Amino acid sequence: MMTKMVPVTVLTGFLGSGKTTLLKRILTEYHGQRIAVIENEFGPESIDNELLVSEQSEEIVELNNGCVCCTVRGDLLRTLLDLKIRREAGKLNFERVVIETTGVANPGPVCQTFFMDDDIARYYRLDAVVCIVDAKHGMTTLDEREEAQQQVGFADRILISKRDLVTDEEYDRIRKRLVKINPRAQMMPVNFGEVDLKQILDISGFNLNAVLDIDPDFLKEDEHHHHHDHECDEHCHHHDHDHECDEHCHHHDHDHECDEHCHHHDHHHTDDIGAFLYTSDRPFVHERLENFLSGIVQVYGPDLFRYKGVIYMKGMRQKILFQGVHMLMGAEPGQPWGAKEKPQTKMVFIGRKLPKDVLKAGLDQCLA
User: Fold this and answer.
1) Which of 3.30.1220.10, 3.50.50.60, 3.30.9.10, 3.20.20.140 would CATH assign to domain 273-366?
2) What is the Cβ-side half-sphere exposure of residue 330, based on CA atoms within 13 angstroms?
3) Do 184 and 157 meet the contact criterion of CB atoms below 8 Å apart?
4) How much is the pLDDT for 111?
5) What are the percentages of helix, strand and coil residues in the chain, rounded to 5?
6) With 80 as the cut, is the pLDDT of residue 342 above it?
7) DSSP one-letter code for 199
8) Mean pLDDT along residues 15-25
9) pTM tops 0.85
10) Is the torsion defined by CA of 302, 354, 178, 44 positive or negative?
């Protein structure tokens, strides 16, 4: 009999964003779920001492609400296998795992752990990456730390903390910027870690059958300001190849982004990490697309954080669903196209300084 896989949520966010507050709620509130929390690279910003006494080695503490908390100073893979062994032996009882990454970590390697090792891949199901962004200091953090942009780029859900400390205009500004970096993550404000666990658990962000959610604002802006089939966000500058300019050139975005003299808070938000959306009503030729994507992943894998899509393939009645993390890519057939549904490919790539013109031209050449 197949054992039910243990779902895993990766919780990420920069120092001071509110991860610890949220974790404390998960660990101390009675929510009827037994959760194992792994603190990867346990640091000074972590769960306070009343809840957890830190030793130099790994430690597992069982809490009275049925949760388990591990502090990890070693290999995440080893810790997950250790939890699996203890759970199978009946020494630990938990239904799901939450991994808190260190504030400055890129979540990519954590996610890859669940695809690289067969024992882990069979036992645990990576559910989603949840990122917390501080509304008050998030703009500055995104400007100064690329790791913060990486965390946003990897996320399936973004929780915006400290909403009460900013004006509506400031909140709208950071929200729009986050949409530019990652249009596929659902966003929601969260106060003092108060969030319905159902909003952050069982999201199925890594499930191929999950709907490809692209923030409608991103599409609206995309279609309104650019050519609808491929253009990316306002932080991607080199795609306007009819008047090449460097990465600091803002003037071509004048219809929806102010110039460098308008607001001091906007003039240098040229994020290295951003999203590239590709849509087409023409079908792909299977072999061409497979060869092109394999090559892209080999060359740009380290800079590709998350990519996902619903593909219209020539000669196939079903939608083809694909996704990847860095260099690991997977695809499988989905539901057939509906009788009244117009087949259309929709793909989103999120990564660092992606060559959008190269991707666009290459994907176009794979069309029938």
Assistant:
1) 3.30.1220.10
2) 10
3) no
4) 86
5) 30, 25, 40
6) yes
7) G
8) 81
9) no
10) positive
